[in-house]
Each structure stands twice: as C-alpha cells, then as structure tokens.
Design goal:
2 copies of one chain form a homodimer. Chain A has 233 residues and is an alpha+beta fold. Chain A has 7 helices and 13 strands. Chain B binds a DNA duplex (30 and 30 nucleotides) through helix 6.
Amino acid sequence: MITSDAGPSLRAASFGPGLPDVVRLLSSDQRTQIASIATVAEFPPGRIVYREGANAQSVFIVAEGAIKAFRDLPSGRRRVMAFLFADDAFGLAHTGHYVHSVQTITRVRLYRIRATTLAAALRDNGELASQFLCKAAHELRGAMRHNLILARRDAVGRLAMFLLMLEHNAPRHDARIDLPMSRSDIANYLGLSQESVSRALSRLERTSVIAFHGRHELRILDRPKFEKIVNAL
Amino acid sequence: MITSDAGPSLRAASFGPGLPDVVRLLSSDQRTQIASIATVAEFPPGRIVYREGANAQSVFIVAEGAIKAFRDLPSGRRRVMAFLFADDAFGLAHTGHYVHSVQTITRVRLYRIRATTLAAALRDNGELASQFLCKAAHELRGAMRHNLILARRDAVGRLAMFLLMLEHNAPRHDARIDLPMSRSDIANYLGLSQESVSRALSRLERTSVIAFHGRHELRILDRPKFEKIVNAL
DNA sequence: CGGGACATTGAAACGTCTCAAACGATGTGG
DNA sequence: CCACATCGTTTGAGACGTTTCAATGTCCCG
C-alpha cells in the first residue's frame, strides 16, 4: 500500500480482464498528477462532507478514516448506501447534484479534486481515466455485494457477511475487526432495525462465533462456524 | 437515440458534474471507433452468454433485447443482480473471471468488444475512457437503486419501485410496461418468493392501481396511488 | 391435443418489526 | 467528586407480513 504522503492511491477493479482488479498502484507520474490536482482536507468525526442534492463540485478519495454515504427518505427513514475507507473514491452525482449525503464517522483525511479539473485530466490521459474506470468498477462490485447481503432474510447472516466485508476493507495486523460506526448505522446499511442488529450480534457472541472487546471492536473466535453462516445462503 | 445501424451508443452517467448524465451521444468518430473494434452477435431467448467464473474475454453492449445477470449461491438459490436493456454495458470481471452469469430473456443483439482491444483503445483515447466511466457510474446508480428497493420490507412497495424502474429503462410509445422476465426472475431480483411477487401483483391489480394485458404487459391505471406506494418509504 | 413449465391461490410457521422499558457510557454542572 | 441529563445500546412481549409447503390453475410449445 502506498504511504499516504506519496499522494492518493486507487484500489483497482475490473471491467474486463484487460483491467486487473488486484490492487494496482498508480505509476509515479500518475500519482504526482493526481496529487497536483488534489487538495487535502481534514474532518473531525460526525462532520457532513456534503449533502444530498448539493451542487456536485468535487470528487473525493479517502486517505484515512471511515465515512458513510446515505440518503434520507420521504418517511424520515435513513438508508446508508455505503461505508467508505482508505483509497475509496466517492462523489457520485446526477444532473450535477450529489446523489447521497456523506458524513465522517472517525477523524478523516480526504483528497479533494474539482470535478471540472478531473474531467479535463481524464480527457487528456486515457491511462488515468482507465484507472478511474477500475475504481468505479470496484465501487460497483461493492454495491453488488451489498445487494447480496440485503437479499438474505436472516439477520445473523447479514451481520456475518457485513463483518466479513469489514474485515476485507480494513484489515488489521491483529485478527480483530473494527466497528467504527454505530449500531444504528449498521442497521440502516443492512436494512434491519437497530434492535435486530443488537440481537444478532448478541446471538453471535453467545454462540461463541465472535467475541467483543468493547462495543466497537471484535474478534472472530470460530472461523469455520462463521464461514458456514456466511455461506448459508 | 442513435439508430442501431450507426453503431453502439452509450447511456451516459456522471461521477461529478464535469460528466453530464443526461443521454450523451458519442461523437461520430467515437462511434465509428467503437464499431470498428466491436462485433455483432445475436442470441435467441434463454441463451447463456457466459457463465460466472468463466474467463472474461469480452465486454458487451446491448443493442436490442432484454438480459439478466445473476449469481448462483451455494444453497442453490439464484440471485438476479440486474436486468439489462438497450445501451446497457456488461462484462464485469474479477481476477480475470466474470462475476455473474448472463442469460438472454428475449431475442437479443449484442456488441461484443474484446477486453484487450478495449483496454488499448481506452488508454489511447481519454474521451472514450471517460464515456465508459460515465457508463460505469450509470450502472453504479442502477445497483444503488436496486439497494433502495431491497431495503423495503413490503412486497407491494418493492414491486411498485420495480415497475417504475422498468418504465424508465424501456419506455414505450403507449403507456404500457413490458415484463419480459418470468415471475421467478422478478422474485430473485427483488429478494422475494415467487408467491409474494404473484400476490403483490394481484393486490395491485385488485386495488385498480395497475391493469394487466396478458402476463407480460401492464398499464398503470392510478398514477397518484402508484406514486404514493413508491414514495411510502 | 398433451405435457411440462410457469403462475396463482390457500393455510400454518417462522422471524423481524414495533412499542416499551431498563441498562450503560459519556459529559456537564453543582 | 457526585448527581444528573443525554445518547446509544440491550433486552422483552405482541403484532404483522413474508416464507414455506401444498394444491390448483393457466399458458405455451412440441
């Protein structure tokens, strides 16, 4: 992984085999090019980066920290569409307006690129544009994994898949998993009530599949049982 | 809309305001460029285009017809991840292998582009790559709308949103909506049982919100009531 | 015209949602 | 330093809606 000082990096994805999906580092030139058009911004926890419907002026890449993207529905309900971590890009727009609201969960450092600047850079540099295409494909796969999770009807199964996703997205040196977001955010992401999330986590803990170390950190105790739950659907 | 004889066209999407999301036609040069690297293929209904896990050699653009992309789960269940119509692109891969299986629903005409060829063309032509980026963003928004649908707990609400989506994706001169796919496919897309789909459609018909003309075509009778159901969440 | 897949309808069981209350951690003011 | 208010989390009991299982009905293609 690129050190953050070296500038923004991209997780690569694929839309066809010509575009590899394992982590693919930008060339030094591209990195410096992105760095040259990006500015760095820092945010404390719980800060709104932008609101749904606002004029979409920038695209962002997460350098460090955890973020949520959500939509508020007519009924007052809130749907969390994605959690974003280091190297993830966001700023999806429609008709010149942001599609989601975005709010920090932890302390966050962002690369911010003005959309007009980026568009020009992409037109001039096919390789760079291809990298961003890979990035978009990565986000697309993330949304589809989310779909798979939502398709399950059982709460514990959804939670298990969610934990597995977190483990992949933000791997740690020890075998632990961070849960920086609130139970409410998890519920809104998984399409469950907060109570169901709490009950499902309790059940996983009671059956010795996982063990909590505080409310926002856990460890998988029984990997085979865990995998079995994940693959149950 | 571009006539199909003129070559493939792209529905544009946006990843920031610099990339407009209203339908944006490719320049004549780009269209001929795509046409020059694409081959046309025709498929009868029910034909597998490629299978999940197969070597991903090509990217496709739908010229005409309806297609479904799905995954078969360990339990034997099938999840339909997307329905694809004219101008939609598909061929998402991971580690050089297709992520989904893709099967035709109706008779279909496709543009097929070898991935290696496409990758080279994208590197040489930033504008073209930007167009494909817009395309990917469009697919991403589609996946997120799918997420919104799956987040609802009520069957009729999901069906209503689904019908609205179909109306947008394949507009007809008359006010009717085509349902080319089977009830089973709809169920697998909406995360419901076939029975629930059937019951929900019956309910919508019984309450005079919609009217069927055969099993695969319908009309919205009461638009206000329909919108109300859609916006209930 | 028949066979088989697709579609509809019915009755019981399961699991989540909702409503409600208790619990715990956190931060502030007395 | 403690009392207190607040927010997030956990736990409990009943209602609702979908799933499941089963049977019937319908369409389409050979």
